[in-house]
Write a structure and sequence with these properties.
- The complex is a heterodimer of chains A (about 120) and B (about 120).
- Chain A contains no helices and 11 strands.
- Chain A has strands at about 5, 10-15, 20-25, 30-35, 45-50, 55, 65-70, 75-80, 85-95, 105, 110-115.
- The radius of gyration of chain A is 13 Å and the shape is globular.
- Chain B has about 120 residues and is an all-beta fold.
- In chain B, strands 2, 5, 6, 10, 11 and 12 form a 6-stranded mixed sheet that branches. In chain B, strands 3-9-8-7 form a 4-stranded antiparallel sheet, with no helix packed on it. Chain B has a two-stranded antiparallel ribbon with strand order 1-4.
- In chain B, β8 (about 65-70) and β9 (about 75-80) form a beta hairpin.
- The chains are: A mainly beta (about 120), B mainly beta (about 120).
- The interface between A and B is medium-sized, with 25 and 25 residues.
């Protein structure tokens, strides 16, 4: 199973809502990532989890809160977002959590619209 | 600092033409890794190839080939006999020892293949 799944596929939320994005992989990968991608731009790294511990936070606003409940799951909790946070949110995983040589396996993304 | 430059923003070709996507990188790392990813209109990034800095051997996979030249800091990607299904955004990416888990993506090249 070489698949990363993400739910939901689409999400529309108001600025006062609280919602969560979910990502799951069953490849035994030990590094998981959240990326944000705006239209016609490359993915921007938000967070990296290595062996279920947060190892990189790219100065992301606190209205985005990641969580890694176990080695297969990665969540992104959203609260009080702004319209400029509207984007495609991509989850990815890679094999070993302590090296940067491994390719990413990406999920299909959640297209988020903040109204 | 690490940087990836994809100077071609958009390329349009007719089916069966060959097309080369350019990628130039900058890094001070001795050990680093280069990647190509494909992002079709569906949104999911798909891993195509990884090259490490010690392996300059060119690679061919079907209609795809990659030319890695350390002397010019380039890692170019050629599609032979392009097909409509090749239409996508292609990202070149770099990770190095000093960057931790961070993968640096180029801006991407949007390829249109017309029938």
């Amino acid at each position: 199973d070489t698949e990363v799944t993400q739910t939901p596929k689409h999400l529309v939320m108001g600025m006062t809502n609280k919602k969560s994005l979910k990502c799951e992989q069953h490849m035994g990968h030990r590094a998981m990532y959240w990326y944000k991608q705006k239209a016609k731009k490359p993915p921007e790294l938000m967070f990296v989890y290595s062996y279920e511990k947060l190892s990189i936070n790219e100065s992301v606003p606190s209205r985005f809160s990641p969580e890694c409940p176990n080695s297969s799951l990665l969540n992104l909790h959203l609260h009080a977002l702004q319209p400029e946070d509207s984007a495609l949110y991509l989850c990815a995983s890679s094999q070993v959590g302590t090296r940067n040589s491994d390719e990413h396996y990406f999920g299909p993304g959640t297209r988020l619209t903040v109204t | 600092a690490q940087k990836v430059t994809q100077a071609q923003t958009e390329i349009s070709v007719v089916e069966k033409e060959d097309v080369t996507l350019d990628c130039v990188y900058e890094t001070r790392d001795t050990t680093y890794y280069l990647f190509w990813y494909k992002q079709p209109p569906s949104g999911e990034l798909v891993f195509l190839i990884r090259r490490n800095s010690f392996d300059e051997q060119n690679e061919i996979s079907g209609r795809y080939s990659w030319n890695f030249q350390k002397s010019t800091s380039s890692f170019n990607f050629t599609i032979t006999a392009s097909q409509v299904v090749d239409s996508a955004v292609y990202f070149c990416a770099l990770s190095g020892d000093t960057g931790g888990f961070k993968t640096i993506f180029g801006a991407g090249t949007r390829l249109f293949v017309k029938a």
